[in-house]
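User: I'm curious whether this sequence folds into something compact or stays loose and floppy. Could you predict its structure so I can see for myself?
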Amino acid sequence: MSHIVSGPEGPAGHGTADHTPGAPAVRAHDPRKARRALIGAYVGTSLEWYDFFLFGTTASIVFAPLFFGGDDPVLRTIQSFLLFGIGFIARPIGALLAGHFGDRLGRRTILMVTIVVMGVASALIGVLPTYETAGIVAPVLLAAMRFVQGMAAGGEWGGATLMAVENAPEGKRGFYGAVVQLGSPTGTILSSMIVAAVVALSGEKFLEGAWRIPYLLSILLVVVGVWIRLRVDETDDYKDAQAARAASSEKEGLPVLEILRTVPGRLAIGVGTYLFGNAGFFVLTTFMISYATQQLGVPSTVILTAITWGAVAEIVTMTIAGKVADRTSPSIVVVVGYAIAAVLAFPIFWLVDTRSTVLITAAMVLGIGFASIPYAPVGTVLTQLFPVKVRYSAIALCANIAGVVAGFMPALAAWILGVTGGTSTGPTLLLLALALISLASSIGARRVIRRDEEQNVDQISGDLLNR
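Assistant: Here's the prediction. I'll summarize afterward.
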């Protein structure tokens, strides 16, 4: 496993630039710059995830009946979920492009591009024709826009995480990384609340055209996001890496090839560590909306409201988890969080199966709220795994390779539900398996990070003795 532990630059602990392996750069901290970076990363990511999650929220409610032909509602739902998964196929492509240019041109530039592309694609979904008026062209256009959404999302998370974590003061990187992750529940709350509100206000007219309103709102959200990100500066870690690159005569290859050549083991561990944060979430939201409304006959407003409360709980638990991560370590919180997620898998579905509004809400608070504890510091953990010069590409690839699997979880869960007779046992076992995979991977990530830290200490001690 030596190839997992370190590459040519030495240990990849966070805070290390590429000038002296293992030695953190010493610089004066600018609180205003850090706050601007944190706000820009959080707000921009929230708006980006609003657009991305909105598709999942409306996948079974809107796209299944309006964008696919045929008389079988189950088949239309599975087709809609497969279309949902197309966005995740595109995410690694977006991650590669954004990571390459983000490691070459800077985090800030790429983040401006991703938020604009996402917003435009979402707004265009709001004006697409349906199957009734355009036939097969309708789902084809929808798939194209979903693919563009996926590419934008693929480049967003890695850059936003680095923008916040690399600008964070020492001792607060766990919390800063968690704040970026809050963009996920914030986007969930925005999409669920707006869809629920439009459903309540429009009634039967929702499917006649009111469903387009949440998508058209993306234009306004893009303007807000761009204005905020224009005020954010580039990170010092990136500037240090650029200076080291300029001073070096060594020719550098593509970041993704560097990753595969030097730290492929870290990449595999990172993918597994991030898996539940994506895949588990979409089982608990996108699939659960379909399961509750179509299988259990629960009104859509009930499950959407429950998911909203779950996202509120997620914000609280992730904020606490981020602070705990700084007092202990991010990797400890991730490991413990995945253990909790595994324990909660069966109780979540048992509560939803009661069809009780109160208990369904409790299930979403447990599932989206408490099962998301590891999602808070996972970005910081991934940042600790990789050297600065390939870090954007590496953590973006981790998140988005995991995302390819995650994108098809709703369709897989729906298929499992069908072949197991419509009971929740199959989807529950799927959720449990995802949690266990991420638990094992996070234990591996913690071991690698601790080994890096020990090597850093040994190297610093050796340098002091040689002076």
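Summary: The radius of gyration is 22 Å. The longest helix spans residues 425-466.
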